[in-house]
Amino acid sequence: MNRTAAITTTKLDRVFNPRSVAVVGDKQALAYMWLRSLSSFKGDVYSVQIDPREFPGIAELGVKNYLSLMDIPGPVDYVIAAVPRTVAPTIVKDCIKKQVGGVCFFTSGFAETDTEEGIKLQQEITELARQADLLLIGPNCVGIYNPKIGLRHNPIQAYGEGGTVGFISQSGTHATLFTIAGERHGIKFSKSVSYGNAAILDSTDYLDYLKEDEETEIIGMYIEAVKDGRRFFRCLRETAEKKPVLIWRGGESEEGARAAASHTGALAQSSTVWQALIKQCGAIRVENLDEMIDTVKALLYIKPGIGARVGLIAMSGGQSVAITDTFARAGLTVPPLTRSSYERLATFFNIVGGSYRNPFDVSSSFLMSENAISNMANMLDVMEHDPNIDAIVLELFTIISPFSRNKEKPDPLLDTIVEFKDRSKKPFLAIVTTAHSEALASEIRERLMSKGIPSFPSFERGAKTLKRFVDYHRFKQEQALN
Amino acid sequence: MANKIITNALKNGRTVLTEVESKQLVASAGIPVVETKLAKTKAEAIEISKSMGFPVVLKIVSPDIIHKSDIGGVKLNLTNATQVGKAYTEIMAAAKKANKKADIHGVSVQKMAKPGVEVIMGMSKDAQFGPVLMFGLGGVFVEVLKDVAFRIVPLTRRDASQMIREIKGYPILEGYRGQEPANVTALEDLLLKLSEFVDKTPQIKELDLNPIFAYKDRAVAVDARVILESQA
After folding, report:
1. Does A280 lie at the interface with B, CB-CB under 8 angstroms?
2. How many domains does chain B fold into?
3. By the CB < 8 Å criterion, does B215 face chain A?
4. A315 touches chain B (CB under 8 A)
């Protein structure tokens, strides 16, 4: 790491783990979003607001207000500025005078507007910050989320317990959506940052920081464009060697055909090059928020595996055909089992109204069986011991609720699945499609998740996730062998 | 050598190198190319052909003529001196007919290469990531099916190996329906040399080696095309 990068890391440490935060310009019109988000913050929270009409609202939240950053008695590690854009240069100057750790501009109306005034204003704050070596996040972003210390940018975000997932997002909405959706999917965050227009700090700076961050074991990124592509390439390559990095590239389709005199130039479109870059660096490409969530969940909760041969357990005949088609389409295989597996299945599996070739159709042996629980345990066990099978997928139905309705009481099926998950050495996941009741499906998924069993809401999402997951682990294994 | 070719072209206000210049440039990087010489007269063309050995190929060399075969500027499989002489005259006539003002350097003479699996490699510059290498099978595979793979420079051996295996047409390189397999290691070597070369030669804007003939034991570039960055 060179000197500049090391300095930035130390400075980023201060704003990612601040002990004091000041919000400049929070107001009723924003429903005091910033101050309410910071109600969970473990350190000192200050407000800076000069409009007397806002004073009662700020006081009601129990936050002390000042007329200027300079009036705050102690040091300020992190400033969130939600001021009108024309005031931004003044705030930057105050931040420099106050020697704050860094400032995040929620304020928008800069270069992203593509207007002369916006571009000029952004240049002005950039120049001021650069000259004084002030750490500036954004503008046009929501900045940092660090749940462990209760530093949030949205009042819905979870806090208290930190996790191992880091997120770097050019978009504030994606940063908010991913971090609030994560909760339902067993995804807890170490740190997340939305960086907007990247006037000074770009995705690479944050990636460099999370690369070294011990709390962060998985990194997700939402990127539209990078500034220094060569530096990003090197940094991504280094980071992906150490921890999984998922990349969701926004604006893939925007690039039109480029006039070029060579074959290579005509074919090398931006989206193609991004895909090559992601592959080359050993990162994981995802195309949307759902894929981001699914893949992070898989990395957190599915045991590593590199094989593409899947054992499928479906609840009915129709579902067993559909799930097989979907997994095959995703590039996975659904092979027959060994003879000894079939011999064992024949001792308990009812083939009247069911079948066990792979996929299993368990209508008669589970849904309509007195021995449902022991049969399920045995079916899972057969898949576990079959050498033709690398990964196991279990479908659960909402048509017939699989678990007892009383969530407080132990459920024999859930216990069986959990017991299997704990001892299984293969990648294992569940799929719970919605059918008639989203509420019931969600409840089943949440109960599974509470026991550390990842589930997916459609065959497609389960299949694509498993494919991406085994591809990643195969790549890592090949990398380790070379 | 490389610098001399580049400087000379830019000095003459050209960013598009001729076939002969392109091949010399690429050869200077240790990339195997079919030996190609410039003949400025008919007599020279015949003399070079004889010393190279027949059959040979003649192509027009002019910075003003890009699509050489479209105007009748390429003559293949010339088996003796008489054919070479006749081809020379025809090419010159065709070139003048196509573009009266064309700056004609002469014709290139090269030995007709033994057919192999046709492969394309190239470099272009991405606005964000700089030089990017492309690999694919030649002809219809690249032109119609766009079955190509990309990697960002510099490439590692693993990158080269993976990008070759990434294309859908890879089984063709392994030998398909009795055709000889291509030496994939030789192709990897070529990609790595190309990566190293373009990395240290930022004056190059775009480059195509198309086709490269891949054989059981080696690979050789049959045509090369280099476009330079215009000087600021």
Report:
1. yes
2. 2
3. no
4. no
Q: Which of A237, A241, A262, A264 to mutate to test the interface with B (most CBs of B within 10 A)?
A: A264
Q: Both tokens of residue A95? A: 């931040």
* B54 and B125 both lie in a single domain: no
What 3-state DSSP class applies to B223? coil
Per residue of chain A (482 residues), what is the pLDDT tens digit?
A: 455 666 788 899 999 999 999 999 999 999 999 999 999 999 999 999 999 999 999 999 999 999 999 999 999 999 999 999 999 999 999 999 999 999 999 999 999 888 999 999 999 999 999 999 999 999 999 999 999 999 999 999 999 999 999 999 999 999 999 999 998 999 999 999 999 999 999 999 999 999 999 999 999 999 988 989 999 999 999 999 999 999 999 876 644 334 444 556 666 678 889 999 999 999 999 999 999 999 999 999 999 999 999 999 999 999 999 999 999 999 999 999 999 999 999 999 998 889 999 999 999 999 888 999 999 999 999 999 999 999 999 999 888 778 887 888 889 999 999 999 999 999 999 999 988 889 999 999 999 999 999 999 999 999 999 999 999 999 999 888 86
CATH topology of domain A1-140: Rossmann fold (3.40.50)
Residues of chain B contacting A264 with CB distance shorter than 8 Å:
120, 122-124, 132-134, 206-208
Query: Could you say which of A225, A229, A264 has the minimum Cβ distance to residue B122?
Result: A264
d(CA A363, CA A357): 14
B80 and B177 assigned to the same domain: no
Kindly state the tokens that stand for B42.
Answer: 């008919």
Judge whether A265 is closer than 8 Å to chain B, CB to CB.
yes
Measured in angstroms, the CA of B183 and the nearest CA of chain A are apart by: 20
* Architecture of the CATH domain A163-301: 3-Layer(aba) Sandwich (3.40)
For residues A248 and A219, the answer to whether their CB atoms sit within 8 Å is: no
H or E segment to which residue A394 belongs: strand A391-396
For residue A447, CA distances in Å to A297, A410, A466 come to 15, 11, 21
Does the N-terminal peptide bond of residue A139 adopt cis geometry, omega within 30 degrees of 0? yes
CB contact under 8 A, A270 and B130: no
Residue of A nearest to B156 (CA): A280
Predicted structure pTM score: 0.92
CB of B187 within 8 Å of any CB in chain A?
A: no
Predicted ipTM of the assembly: 0.87
Note whether A479 contacts B146, CB cutoff 8 Å: no
Q: Is B144 exposed, middle or buried (0-12, 13-18, 19+ CB in 10 A)?
A: exposed
CATH number of the structural domain spanning residue B149: 3.30.470.20
On the 0-12 / 13-18 / 19+ scale of CB atoms within 10 A, A381 is middle
Sign, CA dihedral A410-A411-A414-A420, equals positive
Range of the domain at B49: 35-112
Q: Which of residues 231-250 of A touch B (CB under 8 A)?
A: 232-233
Query: Does A277 sit within 8 Å of B129, measured CB to CB?
Result: yes
The answer to whether B145 contacts chain A (CB < 8 Å) is no
Within 8 A by CB and 6+ apart from A377, the residues are: A416, A419, A420
Q: Which residues of A touch B225 (CB under 8 A)?
A: 262
Instruction: Using CB atoms within 10 Å of the CB of residue A124, give its burial: 0 to 12 exposed, 13 to 18 middle, 19+ buried.
Output: middle
Q: Domain extents for chain A?
A: 1-140, 163-301, 303-481
**A303-481 CATH:** 3.40.50.261
